[in-house]
Design brief:
Layout: H1 2-24, E1 26-36, E2 43-46, E3 49-54, E4 58-67, E5 70-74, E6 77-83, E7 86-90, E8 99-105, E9 109-115, E10 121-127
Antiparallel strand pairs: 1-2, 1-3, 1-10, 3-4, 4-5, 4-6, 6-7, 7-8, 8-9, 9-10
């Protein structure tokens, strides 16, 4: 009986951890990318592109946006992992390459937050 409880517990823990990452599989539209910092002008950008999360922890970005007159493009591959309430994106030279805190994680929408090296809050809202 004790063995069944232990096995059941491990099964549930595994299911919880994989369900968060499985929700990410697919292509997500970046509905909003916002940066804010004390004493600086807030920047909010809408519908700037897509991020595709594939099985095996790999993905691809197709992002284009203009900020303060500068056009930025990010059309590159990335690696991703999910652990607890964090998503980590790794992609050399990308503004999106960092550890993001998962604010909410729904089937068709995600909201993440991060703080960059300049102490700016960044919010990323994704939709399927």
């Amino acid at each position: 009986m004790k063995t069944k409880i232990i096995i059941g517990t491990f099964f549930l823990i595994g299911l919880i951890f994989t369900s968060c990452s499985n929700r990410l599989i697919g292509t997500w539209t970046i509905k909003k990318y916002e940066t804010t910092a004390d004493g600086k002008q807030a920047v909010e950008l809408n519908n700037i592109g897509t991020m595709t999360f594939n099985r095996g922890g790999v993905g691809e970005k197709d992002i284009t946006y203009t900020i303060f007159g500068i056009i930025k493009e990010d059309k590159s591959k990335f690696q991703w992992t999910v652990q607890d309430n964090y998503v980590k994106i790794e992609s050399e030279g990308s503004d999106f390459s960092k550890k993001w805190i998962i604010i909410y994680n729904n089937k068709n929408s995600q909201k993440w937050k991060s703080i960059d090296q300049n102490n700016q809050d960044e919010i990323l809202e994704l939709a399927k």
